[in-house]
Each structure stands twice: as C-alpha cells, then as structure tokens.
UniProtKB/TrEMBL annotation:
GO terms for molecular function: GTPase activator activity; myosin II binding; syntaxin binding. This is Lethal(2) giant larvae protein. Residues 852-869 have a biased composition (Low complexity). It comes from the Eukaryota. Residues 888-898 have a biased composition (Polar residues).
Length: 1259
C-alpha cells in the first residue's frame, strides 16, 4: 500500500523538469565534430557485376547498392542518389570512364575526376534513360502501349569507345553514339552527350528478317537479345544472339544479315574463339589489340547444358552489297556436345575462350547434371581440347579456303605470325580441317581440366589480362565472396586476396578493433601465422599461388611529409565466428586486410570443433571416390554449423593476454609461449544450486581427454592456452575483463610502471554471464599455470518466476519471446515504410542527375520531333533473360518510385559531410520526449552482466579479509595490502564494487576480495559501459589495469593517497558521474527522457591530438564522452560536466543491424604510445563487411590513430602503350589538375551532391 502511495511522488521530479529548468535544445548539425568513415573491410552485400579495363589494369565491382572500384590500396566509391539496383558495369577501355545499367533501364556514365588534384574519385557525369521505350516507340511509330514493357537485356561498349550497343527483350538492337564533337570546356547534358539512332539505324526483328529468304523466315523467332559481340578485327560485323537460340552475324555498314546460325536450344552466352590459342606477340605492350584469328569460330552455350562450335567464314562487307550477296546459313561443325552429359544438365550461363602460352583455355559456368550435381555451383576450366589442336593446325588453310584474292593471301600470311606450324600442317582438307579430327570444344581427355566447386551462387566471371593474351587470372564473383584463380601457374592455384576478404567464412558472432597492440604480440602472430594452433599443426591452405596480385593499375599518392607523416598501424582486428575460430587481421587504408593467424578455440573441447571438423576434409574423401567431374573445392564461405556451443561471444585483448568467451560458458585464456605449458582448468559455479533452479539450455562442454597431458607437438613459439574456465550453468558469456599482474619487486620507491615492461606473474580474468559473474586468478607454477577462483556471485533474483526464466537459457521460451518481439518490430517498421512509400509514389524518377521539367531527353524524341510521355507504371514482370536474370522480383519497386536503401558507406559519408543540398533538406529526426516507465526489479533479464572493469585501489579504510589457508601447504596467508578494485554492472542497473587485496603489492601471488559497496540506479536501466576518469586531467583510466598510469599523481608515503578517480556509468537512459569511493552523484545527463532515444554503447574519446604529436602526453587533448543511440546518432558530452557538445548523424534510424553492431576501439596495451582513448569505431554493414570510422574535430582531417586509415588520392594510373591514348585523360591523371582543368573535366549541367560524391581511398 505504501509503495502505491509513493509511486506518484517518484514520478513527480521528472514531470516538473520542464517547469524547474529550461529544456535543452537538441541540434543535429555536427558543427563541432565529424565522423570520417575510413573504409569498408570485407565483402559487400548483393554483388551484381564485374568489369575489367585491359588498358588501365583496373577492375570494378558493382553491388546492388552502389559501386566499388579499385586495386590494392586504391578504392573509389560512387553511389546512385536513390541507391538503385545495378545489374551491369562496363568500361570505356583506356578512358577512365565506365557505364552502369540500373534495374530501371537507366544507363549512368561515371568518370575518374580529380577536383583538387590530390583526391580523385568516381563521379557521375551523365545518364541515359528511357532507351528501351524510345526504341520501341520508334519501331512502332506510335506511343508505347500501356501494357507493353521493354527492358535492356544486352549491353556492350564498342571497341572504338565511340558508341554503345543496346539490345532489348523485344529483339531490337541499336547503336547509341557518343558526341565527340563538343568543344573542350563546354558543359554536356543528356541531350548533347549522346546521339540516339534514327529509325533506319535500329535493327528490329522485322528488318533483320527481310534479308533472309521467305522459306527460312517463317521458322525463325527473334525474341529477346541476350548476346551482342563485335567480331575481332571486324568492328562492323556484329554477332546478335536471341534467347530462342538463333544467332545472326549482322553487317552494320551494309545493313544486312551476313550469316544465320540456327539452333533449337535456348541461347545463353557466346564468345569468339579460333587460332592456335597462343598469345599474340606484343600483347602486353598493346593490351587492347585483338588478334584477327579470334574471329574464325564462335563458341555458343545453351540452356540444356551443351556447347556448340561454328566456323565463321570471311565476308565482303560494305554498303551496296545487300542485293548482290545473300545470307548464308551456317551449320555447327558437329552436333552440340554436353560436357557433363548425356543426362539432362543445367544451363551454361557464361562461356569464355582465352589464349595462353600452352593453348586456349575454355571456361564456362554451370552445365552440371541436374539429378546428381544440380545443387552445385561450378566453374569449369580446361585446356588441351582438340578444338585448339585442330585450330592450331588449320589456321592458315581456313583463311585460304574461305577467302579469295591477294588480300586474303595477305591475311593468311599475317596469320602465320601467330602460328608457327605443327606436325599436321601439310595434311589439310579443302574445308581446312585435319583428316579424322572431329572438332569439339570439350574433350574429356583434356590434359588440364578442373571443375571449381563454389560454396555460393556464381554471379559473374571476369578474365584478367590483355585482349591478345596471355590470360593472367580469373575473377569469380559469388554471392558471398570473391575468388581469384592464377591461370599462369601450372595447376591453376588460388590467388590471395588483398581486399574484399571473406570475413564471414563462418558466421560472424563478435569482433573487436584493438589499437596499439603490443609489438611483441604482433611479431609473434606474424611468425606463427598459419603454422599451428593449440592442438597441433593447422593445415595450411593448399593451392595458393606465390604470384603477386595481378591487378596493378594506378599509383598511390604521397602524403605531405610535413603535416601528414605516415603513422605505422599497430591495430589488430579480431573476428569471432560461429565455429569457434578467431581470425586476426592486419588492416591498411583502402579496405585492405591481411589475415595473419587463425585460432581454433573449439579444439580444446570434445565434439566436431577445430580444424579436423572442417568440411573440406570430408569433401576431399568424397571427391576421391568420384573422379568425374574433377571437382576442386574452392572458397571459404561455409556458414553451416550444427553445434553452436563453440561460438565466440566476447573477445578481450590486453598486452599479451587474449581472453575468449564462448556460447556454452567457456572462457579460455591464451598467451604466446615458446613451449606448450600445462593448462589449468577450473569449474566456475556462477549460479549455485538453489531450490527451483534447473538448467534447461545448452549441454556443458567437456575438455578433450588428451588435452591436459598432451605431449609437445609443436616446434617453436605459438599461442597456447593458459587456462580454461567452464561456467555453470553453461550460458553464453556476456562480458569479459582481464588484468595482467606485474612484478615490481625490483623497484624501490614507486609502484608506477617503468618505460620497460615488467614481467607478468599472473592474470586476473573477470567473466560475466546471464546468471552472475566470477573472478579468476591465474598464476604461473612449475611447468604451467594454476587457477584460483576468487569470486563467484549470482545475480538471479530469488523469486520462482525469475528462477524458471533463467533456467530456460537459450531454450524455446526465451527464444520465442525474442522472436515475437522482433516480429512485432518488423511489422511496425514495415507499416512505417509503406506509409513513407506512398508519399514517394508520385515523386520524380530516382537518379544522380536531375532533369529539368522543361527539357526532354533525346531518348524520348521521335523522328518528327514530338516528345513521348514517360511510360506509366506497369505491373507485368519482364522476361528473365540476358542481363535481367539477376534482377529480383522485388526490384520492381524501384520502377514505382519507392526509395531503396543505399550503400552504408556512402550513406554515412553523405550524412557526415553536408553541402548546400543537405542544408536545404529537413533536419533528421531527434526523437521526442517520453515518460520513463518503471522497470521490473525481479526478472531474469536484470541478472545479465553487461560490463566489468578493473581500477586502482580505492577503499583504504575497508577492513581486509581474514587470513586464508592455501590448499597445497596448509599455511596461513595474510592478504592485507590493497591492490586494486573490481567493478561489475548488470542489466538491472546494479553496480557491484569489490576491493582486491594481496599479500605483496610489488609481487602479488595470493589474492582475496571483499565487497566494498553496491549501487542501484533508480530507473533500473541496463548499464552499457563503466569508465574511470582521472580527477585532475579527466583522462580515462584503462579498465584492464589496477595500476595508475604515468600521468596520474605519483604515490606518496602510505599515510597519503592519490585522489581517487571518478566513475562514469552509462546506462540506456542516462549518463551519470559518481565520485569514488563514496559513490556520490556529481553530474547527470538525462538522455532518453529528452531525446526519446536509448543509448546503445558509449566510451571516452580523445580529440585534438595530431599524428605528429605522439609523445605530447595528455596536455592539449580534449576528452569527451561519446555514445550512440538507437536513432543512429553519435552524441558528444563534455567531461566532467556532461554537457551536450554536438550530435552527429552516423547511421539511419532504420539501419538496425549497423546500430546494434557499433563497437568502439579499445587500447590493447596498458602502456599506449599514442592515446589511451582512441576515437575509432567499427560497425557491421553486411554479413561479411565491416566499416571503420574515425571521430575527430570539425577542422581536423583524422585522429592520431586514424591517419593510418585515412585515404590518400591517386595522381596517375599505370601507363600502357595504347594505340590511341587520350591526351585529356593523361593530363588529368598524370599530373595534378588545376582549377581550369577541373572545370573542363567535370561536365554536366547538374550540381554534384554528397549523394553522388565519391570517397577516395588509398594508402
């Protein structure tokens, strides 16, 4: 009764806040601080296309949310304003420009520009929309009918870079020429950049059939265009392939069909082939030159998994020959062959024929038997088929037999330059074939044949190398990773990726960015990288090539030697995975990451964990029993894990000690050691046996029997386990904290650490679960380590409901509750997006270039000059052929004007760097004032331990614990000297403070704990972070050390003590500052009650330190409290007064994955050389991609630690002796551009916004 009476009085202070104090205004402006998104590490989500520039030796990877373009250390980003789905990317070879085709059939043009001469980027300079509808309207000579839709299904760039060729699903093909007659410095728009074809230049199905005899015309069906290929050395001859299986060789100059290639199967892909398969002389010096013999044959792929070869003769082309010469009907050199038949096979979606030093290489995707291997994703590579043998023996004869006159003899003589002859060169038939040698594209007895078995769907395949050969490599783009094959080394091994690494080979469960790592620890990891783990030798990745990365286009820019020195990075990114592995990554600018070590923590336990349980071993046994097809397992993506108890939940690194917490309550402690020590084990009863509590979650893990007394199996130093603790009940570990104890017995006057590191004699490890927390002491013993349990405390309420809920663990009840909450949240978000989408249904089309209302595009003009109205929204789905196969059904929302979420990196950059367009846009939502509801005090959710920390000695007046008795010697040990403090905070707003005592402060060997105090927040909000702040300097103290840092007050005689630090408690609703050891409130900042947002994570950061001031100490540095909320904002509070300094938009409110995954970087060393409060952070943008951001002052480029990740620009690209180099491109890329050059380069009548402004990366 009394509680109900006083309940209203508890809410009275919060209700009268607006009366007593003026409400603070929340400004989301970012005027004092900013966030620089440095780079993306890992593989992006939803990749769609690959492209390679043979002249500049660079490649582009397009995703459905943006564009990734670069080489090691050089990265360009360009994103569409509406984040449209990109389905194709193509290069203008050697020009530094590229095209992208979006899902709504808009063609965008991008260019490498350098606005300031130092940081070039990828900038959109124009677009071309309505191409397919314009071609259809010109063909019908009327406005497009409302229920007829047309889409682009094929797109190529001509070899001369003067035009693009477009094919539609209605069978129309049209060349669109670039306007090259514009004076330099004149702005170009959509009307002047492109020249649309006239009616008589469009190759319609009706027009193509006019040159074919009537008896053959009736059987032909020309539907969607899926193949467009220029004939090598004959750019006026175009190969057009239709989905029905028919191919036409069309003469663009004579406007007639030269040859007809009929087939009854559905056509999927085609490529030109022919010749000896050897590379052209001088191909490296002239990478864009195409040998003429590549156009003697055509290799086609069909939907039934078969391949066909066609012999293409030479034709007399030109205007005026349409009436003199008819269309030839060609036949396959033999019936289509199914590589993996004769049973029904899957379609072959892509096919390539590439020259190499040992003959032509045939590459195709798919073609597997449906009944046996229909679920496999494969790319087949073979060399040595009799197609290459026959072509090599008959190149000269084929040219002589199919041509006449002296010009043909000259071509035959020219062909001898690429072919030196063979044993059967003199034995030829009139048709140019070797007697008795059938021409196959596939030979089961090929000397080199491999079928790459990929773990995810194949999206695109891109060969590397000059056009004339030799082919140097092959890029295979899958849905979850990028795979590179070395085609120069025998056996075709894999190439190690310098970027776009597969971080989610096993599902990511946790990660951490640790700065200023101990150099000895890094050197040790580098020395043993890939060599061994705790159990034994780790199998190294077989089949890795020793060659360097083949893509080397571009050059790295140089930093300013005065103001921007290169700071070496000692940072380490550690990722934890579901299969119990830890991956250690060294990072660099431009998204580059290098894996230096892999640790199998599951090897310590019984079960299918560790390197022996990897699926490749079982797959290899399966492959041995199935020699055909010759499968080779490639790729790292393997997200399936039956037993998730070994999953990594928490990672903590301090100095040379690594602590890992798992999903089944296991905590392992690792250190570098020259020999394998004896591992200590300990059972931690976090929740004691109480009536009504019975664990129903995971089964506990058991250590391997041969783990404790395992003989030495490793030679040299490695990362070995010191101790393993198994929490009972085996619930997931929620937080960890570690502290190394040093030996200061040699020091006489002070306990302050010396510049030289002191030897470590023990480790304190704190662990927290959903039921409580514990503290373990690991000390060195003879031949190994010994562990002692100092503390175990249960935080579960004593009522029956809480005990029953806590006993479920990760069982069905808690999981079902969580799924129900997520379902309700998703439903409300879906309704909110639907409401916001209705307002954009009538908006203008999405794109980076806005078209004024008074102008009409050339694609929408008819020959008579009348304009065509934009097509109405259509509900019918286009045929899934050609380029439209990769388009999802949900992509139709883009055509209806619904906003689609864009690239996370580009969105963050656009939100951080505001321009004129951003200033005119409405402000971001800042939440609203809401009532703080009472939280339940006796539930299992309040027992979860969120964070822990160590601190210096505080409670000097507290009575020491009683003397203890050692178990080994039965001697009494006095622990009367105060060593430090230990803090633990729960999700119920409770903070426990313990005093840590030892027998000898300078050399602690025996420790004991006594609880000093306990604090309970009145609002009972979960505590997300605990930080200790120095009283005088306001510098944060390291939460992984019990020793005071060097800048703090030195220790004086025992009757005087230094000023105790302050304790900052960051909960989900408030930020409070307490004085220690009395736990009295000094400052408070109410966040949720004013903003309406909940705090997700927080930390103390240092601002104002430059990269060249590494030893300046703490003077001149500004320390602030930074936290992120569920609205995607980063809020800066001053220390120690907790006044709001700034609010920065980091992410969008709908980016739930990114917001919940934000992790601030921590200093891994207790003696940091730069700063103990790094301003770096990481968040997850995709299942296998992480973004690193740096928070600095508004006028600062980067922080002291962020300099290593700050991108630097390119000044030029690698030079190649191209036949027609562009002087304008050389002027822009070879030397820094001036203001005049910039005005000439950036063309277009529309201002550039931050949504289209790229970020340039390099290192």
């Amino acid at each position: 009764m009394a509680q109900r009476i006083f309940q209203s009085f508890r809410r009275l202070p919060s209700q009268l806040t607006s009366v007593r104090k003026k409400q603070d205004t929340v400004e989301v402006v970012g005027s004092h601080y900013k966030i620089n998104v440095c780079s993306n590490v890992g593989f992006p989500a939803k990749p769609s296309s690959l492209a390679y520039d043979q002249s500049l030796d660079i490649f582009a990877l397009a995703t459905r949310d943006g564009i990734f373009f670069g080489k090691p250390g050089v990265v360009y980003y360009g994103s569409h304003k509406g984040a449209l789905e990109i389905i194709k990317v193509l290069f203008f070879t050697g020009m530094g420009k590229l095209l992208t085709l979006s899902v709504d059939d808009i063609i965008y043009v991008w260019e490498i520009v350098s606005p300031n001469g130092n940081q070039p980027g990828l900038q959109n300079i124009g677009q071309l929309s309505g191409v397919s509808d314009a071609l259809e309207s010109k063909h019908l000579e009327v406005d497009p009918i409302g229920d007829i839709t047309s889409h682009i299904t094929a797109l190529i760039v001509s070899s001369s870079n003067s035009s693009i060729l477009v094919g539609t699903d209605q069978g129309n093909v049209a060349p669109i020429r670039r306007n090259t007659h514009v004076k330099q410095g004149v702005d170009q728009d959509e009307n002047t950049m492109w020249i649309m074809p006239s009616k008589d230049k469009i190759i319609t199905p009706h027009r193509a059939l006019q040159s074919i005899s009537p008896e053959k015309r009736t059987r032909l069906r020309l539907d969607a265009v899926v193949v467009l290929l220029e004939r090598p050395s004959y750019p006026s001859q175009l190969l057009i392939g239709y989905s029905s299986g028919i191919c036409l060789l069309y003469d663009l100059q004579g406007e007639r069909v030269l040859a007809l290639l009929p087939c009854q199967y559905e056509l999927e892909a085609a490529t030109w082939c022919g010749g000896s398969g050897l590379p052209v002389r001088g191909a490296v010096a002239n990478p864009t030159a195409t040998p003429p013999h590549l156009g003697t044959r055509v290799l086609t792929a069909y939907g039934n998994g078969s391949l066909g070869v066609w012999q293409i003769p030479l034709f007399a082309t030109g205007p005026g020959l349409a009436t003199e010469l008819g269309t030839q009907t060609l036949q396959m050199m033999e019936s289509p062959s199914m590589p993996y038949g004769p049973f029904p096979c899957k379609l072959i979606s892509k096919v390539f024929w590439l020259p190499s030093h040992e003959g032509g290489i045939t590459i195709f995707t798919g073609g597997m038997p449906r009944s046996i291997y229909g679920d496999r994703n494969t790319v087949s590579i073979l060399r040595g088929s009799n197609l290459d043998q026959a072509a090599a023996a008959n190149l000269a004869a084929a040219l002589r037999a199919d041509s006449e006159g002296d010009a043909d003899c000259e071509r035959s003589t020219a062909g001898q330059e690429f072919y030196d002859g063979g044993a059967n060169a003199d034995i030829l038939l009139p048709s140019g074939l070797v007697p008795g040698a059938p021409v196959h594209v596939f030979d089961s007895d090929a000397p080199e044949h491999v079928c790459l078995d990929l773990p995810s769907l194949v999206v695109d395949v891109c060969p590397l190398g000059p056009a004339g050969g030799p082919v140097t490599g092959l890029l295979i783009l899958c849905e979850e990773e990028l795979i590179a094959i070395d085609l120069l080394t025998p056996g075709w091994p894999l190439l190690e990726l310098p970027y776009l690494n597969c971080l989610h080979a096993s599902s990511l469960t946790t990660y951490g960015l640790f700065t200023q790592v101990n150099p000895a620890f890094l050197e040790g990891l580098e020395a043993i990288g890939g060599g061994a783990d705790a159990v034994g030798p780790v199998p190294r990745a077989t089949g890795l090539s020793t060659r360097t990365w083949p893509i080397q286009g571009g050059e790295l820019g140089r930093r300013n030697e005065v103001s921007e020195p290169v700071v070496p990075s000692d940072d380490l990114l550690i990722t934890g995975h579901e299969n119990g592995t830890l991956q250690f990554w060294r990072l660099a600018a431009g998204g580059c990451a290098r894996k230096i070590f892999c640790l199998f923590t599951g090897s310590l336990f019984e079960g299918d964990f560790g390197p022996d349980a990897v699926g490749d071993t079982h797959r290899a046994c399966e492959e041995e029993s199935e020699p055909w097809p010759p499968f080779r397992r490639v790729g790292l993506f393997d997200p399936f894990m039956d037993d998730v108890r070994a999953a990594i939940k928490v990672i903590h690194l301090v100095d040379s000690t690594l602590v890992v917490g798992g999903a089944a309550g296991q905590v392992s402690v690792w250190q570098l050691a020259p020999t394998k020590p004896t591992m200590a084990t300990l059972d931690v009863p976090v929740a004691p046996e109480v009536p009504g509590f019975r664990w129903k979650g995971y089964a506990p893990l058991t250590l391997r029997r041969n783990q404790l007394d395992q003989p030495q199996r490793l030679a040299g130093a490695s990362l070995f386990p010191m101790a393993v603790a198994l929490c009972q009940p085996p619930s997931p570990v929620t937080c960890l904290s570690a502290c190394e104890l040093s030996d200061f017995s040699a020091m006489d006057k002070s306990l302050q650490p010396s510049p030289q590191p002191s030897p470590t004699i023990g480790v304190l490890v704190g662990m927290g679960t959903a039921h409580g927390f514990a503290l373990m002491h690991i000390s060195a013993s003879e031949g190994g380590f010994a562990s002692h349990l100092l503390l175990h405390h249960s935080t579960i309420p004593s009522n029956a409901e809480a005990l029953e809920e806590a006993a479920v663990g990760e069982g069905w009840a808690r999981r079902r509750t969580r799924e129900l909450k997520n379902s309700l949240r998703d439903s409300f978000r879906r309704l909110k997006r639907m409401k916001s989408g209705r307002s954009t249904m009538t908006a203008a089309p999405i794109g980076p270039v806005a078209v004024t209302a008074g102008s009409s595009t050339s694609a929408q003009q008819t020959t008579s000059g009348s304009t065509v109205s934009p097509p109405a929204n259509r509900l019918n789905h286009p045929p899934r052929v050609g380029l439209r196969k990769s388009v999802s059904r949900s992509a139709s929302a883009a055509n209806q004007g619904i906003q689609i979420r864009g690239d996370p990196l580009q969105e963050a950059l656009s939100r951080v760097h505001s321009d004129n367009e951003t200033l005119t846009s409405p402000p971001l939502p800042t939440g609203c004032e809401r009532e703080i509801c009472d939280r339940p005090a006796a539930t299992a959710n309040t027992a979860l331990v969120r964070c822990m920390a160590f601190g210096p000695p505080l409670h000097h007046r507290l009575r020491p614990p009683a003397a203890g008795i050692t178990a080994s010697t039965s001697a009494t040990i006095e622990t009367s000297q105060l060593l430090g403090s230990f803090f633990a905070a729960t999700a119920g707003g409770a903070t426990f403070v313990f005093a840590l005592y030892t027998d000898n402060v300078r050399r602690p060997s025996h420790l004991a704990l006594r609880q000093a105090t306990q604090m309970q927040l009145q609002h009972r909000a979960p505590i997300v972070a605990l930080r200790l702040i120095d009283t005088k300097t306001h510098c944060p103290l390291l939460t992984s050390s019990v020793y005071l840092p060097q800048f703090s007050s030195p220790l004086v005689p025992s009757h005087h003590h230094p000023l105790p630090p302050h304790l900052m408690v960051i909960s989900e609703e408030q930020v409070r500052l307490f004085s220690l050891p009395s736990i009295s409130l000094r400052q408070k900042a109410r966040i949720t009650a004013k903003d309406g947002f909940r705090i997700k994570t927080g930390n103390i950061m240092a601002f104002g330190q430059l990269s060249n001031e590494r030893n300046m100490g703490i003077y001149g540095i500004e320390f602030n409290c930074v936290f992120t909320n569920n609205g995607g904002q980063a809020v800066v509070l001053s220390v120690p007064y907790l006044r709001r300094r700034d609010t920065i938009a980091l992410l969008g409110g709908a980016d739930v994955l990114e917001i919940n995954s934000i992790v601030f970087a921590t200093a891994a060393s207790t003696r940091p050389k730069v700063t103990a409060a790094p301003s770096l952070g990481v968040y997850q943008t995709a299942p296998g991609q992480l973004a690193i951001f740096d928070m600095v002052l508004a006028g600062q480029r980067s922080s002291a630690l962020g300099t290593a990740y700050r991108t630097v620009g390119l000044t030029k690209v690698a030079k190649h002796s191209t036949p027609s180099p562009s002087p304008r491109l050389q002027q822009r890329l070879v030397k820094p551009s001036t203001s005049t050059d910039t005005a000439n380069v950036i063309t277009g009548s529309v201002p550039i916004s931050e949504n289209t402004r790229p970020s340039v990366n390099g290192f």
